[in-house]
Write a sequence for this structure.
């Protein structure tokens, strides 16, 4: 018990340390911008006063970090009132600063767009599971058959095809040729189908491969022989016994992939003009040089990713006692 | 070796040759526009037709191979060298150094979703070939470092390492001449899959407009320029050929990686 608690605390500490580093990196990234953000936003024609006002309004007139180094004056201590500390104070108060472009709070902009991305990621996950479980069990239980080889090939194809190839390809078939769905937008409820398939394609391929090898492995276990000797039908053996044990590693992958989906949604959202966080980052953030917004989006996506991964790790250890002990 | 491995080698060879001899294979100048010939379909002159500006799609796909493989190879070489050095140091020295590297640094880099980190770096630095390669190396090295660390941990316990130590070899000599050559084998698999990953990442960033700026014929840019409803409806070939090129390249390196993994891991071969 004591050991367990210690382990939990250690993991929590590592997670917080990683989050601290990630937030710090994001905070400092803005210093990499060539030139200064004010010119990027206000244009070359802005007066010195306008630029100074802008920098003051967004706290960019403060020093970047605790200390700075220049050739003339060497290492200079800047004190605690610097951009790094101020951004952190904001983050801890739930304030990600104001957009350079629209002057809206960045957090509000993110909160308005995040649900669309989460909805898309969950839909993609549902589709991936719906494809992968039957296909994985079927190919795994008929190892090296024609169907297995074909299924495995399709799965490898799914991994190899990038999102931005699958997306337009699906648009071509289902929107251009068959006209079942509209090619872009999210006005109607069925508009989620194509984006979700696009985003879920790679995941369904990964899951199919995992479930297949997991089923193959489990089929060789003693309990399967026992179940068969009891006279259970092959179907019951597969669905009741093999699948149940074979799904444990799948749970981990799903957890890890939720983060990947949230991050990878950027490309899918661009293809289908899906008004989610990815499009916000890309079109309102990067394209308009709204660096404060870019910071906020990168921060929110990566922290979600870290939390999802840590939670999965934790659940996985609960699910499989073998891992807990080792 | 399974059949798919050889198919992968064959496809990869075609693209590598295309990239090497692009100036001899390409039938047109990649930037030459002919606005009277927009969206022409395949013909004897323009084998893959022309795009929105009347540029020859075949030549652009051929030169696209050059960009893809150039980025892919550079990223794999640079990030594997960084990964090998850091991973070896972590595995060989152990202790606090290992705790810091594998316990903390690896986790930080694994904590960022790969593509997002690359997007963030390019977003703040600006687009361009060099910055793109830098971004992909930053996300790429940790995979090699992890594999290498595990390998070094295993190899350093072998008898020949003890023998070298008994002979009075220095740490550096043991690490570089005895451990590393015996530990790098699984990294070949990683490199092959990493090649596929780098090709996809380059095209993804170019697709998002964050990679190599437009007149350059990157496959990702070509796909981005040709994926609108109208173009897909009227002249799907402009989309089809670059899409096919990237799919085949990635598939080839995945085939090679999978084949090598099975070959190196006899446990998987039986399945």
């Amino acid at each position: 018990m004591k050991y367990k608690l210690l382990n939990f605390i250690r993991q929590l500490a590592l997670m917080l340390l990683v989050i601290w580093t990630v937030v710090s990196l994001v905070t400092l990234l803005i210093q990499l911008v060539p030139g200064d953000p004010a010119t990027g936003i206000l244009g070359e024609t802005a007066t010195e006063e306008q630029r100074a006002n802008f920098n003051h309004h967004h706290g960019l007139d403060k020093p970047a970090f605790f200390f700075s180094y220049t050739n003339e004056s060497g290492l200079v201590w800047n004190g605690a009132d610097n951009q790094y500390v101020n951004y952190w104070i904001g983050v801890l108060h739930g304030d990600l600063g104001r957009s350079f472009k629209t002057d809206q709070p960045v957090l509000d902009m993110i909160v308005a767009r995040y649900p669309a991305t989460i909805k898309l990621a969950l839909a993609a996950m549902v589709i991936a599971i719906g494809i992968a479980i039957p296909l994985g069990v079927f190919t795994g239980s008929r190892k090296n058959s024609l169907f297995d080889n074909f299924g495995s090939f399709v799965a490898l194809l799914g991994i190899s095809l990038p999102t931005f190839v699958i997306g337009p390809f699906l648009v071509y078939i289902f929107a251009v040729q068959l006209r079942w769905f509209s090619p872009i937008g999210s006005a109607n409820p069925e508009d989620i189908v194509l984006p979700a398939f696009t985003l879920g394609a790679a995941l369904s391929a990964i899951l199919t491969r995992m479930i297949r090898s997991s089923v193959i492995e489990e089929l060789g276990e003693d309990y399967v022989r026992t179940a068969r000797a009891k006279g259970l039908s092959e179907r019951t053996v597969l669905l009741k016994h093999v699948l149940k044990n074979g799904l444990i590693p799948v749970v981990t992958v799903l957890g890890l992939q939720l983060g990947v989906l949230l991050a990878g949604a950027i490309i899918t959202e661009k293809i289908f003009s899906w008004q989610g966080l990815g499009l916000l980052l890309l079109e309102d953030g990067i394209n308009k040089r709204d660096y404060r917004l870019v910071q906020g989006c990168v921060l929110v996506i990566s922290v979600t990713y870290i939390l999802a991964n840590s939670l999965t790790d934790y659940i996985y250890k609960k699910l499989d006692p073998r891992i807990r002990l080792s | 070796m399974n059949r798919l491995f050889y198919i992968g080698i064959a496809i990869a060879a075609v693209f590598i040759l295309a990239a090497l001899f692009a100036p001899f294979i390409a039938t047109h100048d990649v930037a030459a526009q002919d606005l009277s010939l927009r969206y022409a379909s395949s013909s004897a002159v323009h084998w893959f037709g022309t795009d929105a500006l009347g540029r020859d799609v075949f030549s652009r796909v051929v030169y696209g191979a050059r960009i893809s493989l150039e980025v892919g190879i550079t990223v794999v070489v640079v990030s594997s060298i960084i990964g090998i050095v850091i991973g070896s140091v972590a595995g060989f020295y152990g202790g606090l150094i290992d705790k810091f590297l594998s316990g903390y640094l690896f986790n930080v880099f694994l904590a960022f979703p790969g593509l997002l980190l690359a997007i963030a770096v390019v977003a703040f630095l600006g687009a361009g070939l060099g910055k793109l390669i830098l971004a992909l190396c930053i996300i790429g090295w940790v995979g090699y470092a992890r594999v290498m660390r595990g390998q070094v941990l295993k190899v350093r316990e072998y008898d020949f390492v003890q023998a070298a130590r008994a002979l009075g070899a220095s740490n550096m000599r043991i690490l570089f001449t005895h451990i590393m050559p015996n530990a790098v084998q699984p990294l070949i698999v990683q490199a092959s899959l990493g090649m596929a990953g780098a090709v996809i990442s380059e095209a993804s960033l170019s697709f998002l407009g964050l990679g190599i700026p437009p007149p350059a014929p990157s496959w990702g840019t070509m796909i981005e320029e040709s994926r609108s409803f109208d173009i897909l409806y009227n002249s799907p070939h402009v989309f089809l050929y670059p899409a096919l090129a990237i799919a085949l390249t990635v598939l080839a390196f995945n085939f090679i990686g999978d084949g090598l993994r099975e070959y190196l891991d006899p446990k998987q071969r039986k399945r």
User: Anything to note?
Assistant: Residues 171 and 183 of chain A are 6 Å apart (CA to CA).
